[in-house]
Amino acid sequence: MIKVKDGQLADLAVLFDRYNVKLYHFFLKLTLDKAISEDLTQNVFCRIIKYRHTYNISDGTFKSWVYRMARNLHFDHCKQQKKIEDQFKKLENYHDNIPNMDQPRAEGEFKKLDWALLQLQPDQRELIMLSRFSGLRYEEISRIHGKSVLAIRVQVHRAINHLRKIYFKQQEERL
Predict the structure, then answer these.
(1) CA-CA distance, 144 to 168, in Å (whole number)?
(2) CA–CA dist 173, 77 (Å, integer)
(3) N or C terminus of the chain with fewer C-beta within 10 Å?
(4) How far apart are CA 28 and CA 134, in angstroms?
């Protein structure tokens, strides 16, 4: 990123190869829309070029910087769509995300997990996505959210406990 910041934009290809799929999946879990996720992922890299001068290695890792940018871009997208209160689409509109119990166990487990994730509050889902699926450390997430590391740990812990309750309650209801 230092080279990109200095104007060597061809070196952005390395960062693109490393982060485009991760960012796409991050957006996909938040929006549940492939086309929007593709657009948002592309826009992150446009913003990297536009705001490359703001990158400062002393402020944290590139990973935390780019995910903060992605989070802000998602927020901007929701704001433009007048969906601040309802950032995430209703589950009823996405029946494809409801697990089919006739599917093979591994695939069915992932669908049940996705369904349980959809039941969480948007902020809890985002924390789980950042910490567990995107692999960011608590320190990086604290920079993104502007909160202390301890506060992030507590919030992630609560979100995981809530996810666990939803997931296992779902299994009990199926039995």
Answers:
(1) 30
(2) 36
(3) C
(4) 12
CATH number at 1-84: 1.10.1740.10
Q: Which of 129, 125, 124, 148 is nearest to 138 (CA)?
A: 148
**Percent with pLDDT over 70 in the chain:** 81
Query: What are the structure tokens assigned to 105, written together?
Result: 């166990």
Residues in the chain: 175
Spell out the domain ranges in the chain. Answer: 1-84, 98-175
pTM: 0.62
Q: How confident is the model at residue 41 (pLDDT cuts 50, 70, 90)?
A: very high
CA distance 84 to 107: 32
**Distance between CA 94 and CA 90 in Å, rounded?**
7
Buried b or exposed e, range 104-137, using 16+ CB within 10 angstroms:
eeeeeeebbebbbbbbbeeebbbbbbbbeebebb
pLDDT tens per residue, range 119-133? 888 888 889 988 888
CA distance 2 to 53: 9
How does residue 84 score in pLDDT terms, banded at 50, 70 and 90?
very low
CATH architecture of the region 98-175: Orthogonal Bundle (1.10)
